[in-house]
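Hi team,

As requested, here is the filled-out complex form for the protoporphyrin IX containing FE run. I kept the field names the same as last time so the parser does not choke. Let me know if anything looks off before we queue the next batch.

— J.
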Amino acid sequence: IFPMSQTGEQTSWIVTKYDHVKELLKSKSFIKDQSKFMEHSSSEEPDLITSVFQNMMLDVDPPDHTRLRKLVQPYFNPKKIKELEPRISEIADQLLADISRKEGAIDLIEDFAFPLPIIVISELLGVPAEDRNKFRKWSQTILSAADNLEADFIHDTEDFLTYLKKLFDERKENPQEDLISSLLQAEEEGDQLNREELYSMIVLLIIAGHETTVNLIGNTMLALFEHPEQLEKLQADLTFTDSAIEEGLRFYSPVDFSTARWAEEDVDFHGRTIRRGDLVLASLSSANRDEDKFENAETFDITRSQNPHIAFGYGIHFCLGAPLARLEGNVAIKKLLTTFPDIRLYDSHPRWQHVFLLRGLSELKVA
Ligand code: HEM
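And here is what came back:
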């Protein structure tokens, strides 16, 4: 663990070793609710935008976290997710058929890795997949809030919430077999979910479903192109797809850092004193290449048999969407390699995007 920056009394820390990252993410001394450290909390009710970000499951502690997670967990358990496989395969086939009709090099991100998870999460939630460009803009503004003008952030978030309000009203009139309809029912019934939490949950699921699996598909394909002998091994035996996905998650972790935690009290952590209110981030990508945990950590090996990576985090905030992301990754890579057995990298300098917390490509040209 080492200090990253200091603002006034508060130090920000970063944890990089595998065992330390797990310890941090499991520890009850590091919490998500930053408002505990605010000296003057306002007595006014926060506006909807503020409360949407304060109420996200990813940013709250138990018991609220436990209650919110319980509401959505049944929709994302591995058995339920497995039922989506035929539909995910169909969507992948359609996207690949469109790609086959194109001439010249194609951008694997724009034409495949991006639309696939979006269409899947949109259908699961019950938001129209045709509106995906809007969601993309809103998600990107929200994620890059630090680099953006405040005005953009507020404007796009307001548009996003107005859009959701309209959708909620429609679904109330005409409920469907989707997650939004079922959460609306939970909200109406009262004590499980309030209005702000409903918005927070949908915004979180849309952003998480948009910005992560695209990186898993893109990063794993890049690692395969960079290690042609591994690509060949996988093409010869597609039963390695699952372990290739796990290795992609470890080697080019799609989520670079965990979200922030704050020390609830002064804590001694591996030789350092973390003061109450200090911010701590875990580097998942660094932990996943810790030589003390992984043999030949810098080697991309799709046949690695022991791969306890923590690309999906650890502890109570462990990724809700992990079974879905794994299934999408598996279907995507299998279909891609069987449809285009001669696929190769077209541009040897793929571009990484610069978004805080995430690691993914903005473009991956293949031929
Ligand atoms: C949480 C990674 C895909 C929904 C997390 C966390 C990580 C992560 C590291 C924990 C963050 C922290 O503790 O600060 C990933 C990766 C993905 C992926 C690498 C793809 C390869 C998805 C998908 C969904 C999703 C597809 C949605 C459908 C969530 C949610 C949480 C979460 C709701 C918060 C869970 C909680 O607070 O209990 N994810 N994620 N993720 N992820 Fe994912």
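Two things worth flagging: The mean pLDDT is 92. The longest helix spans residues 150-173.

Thanks,
J.
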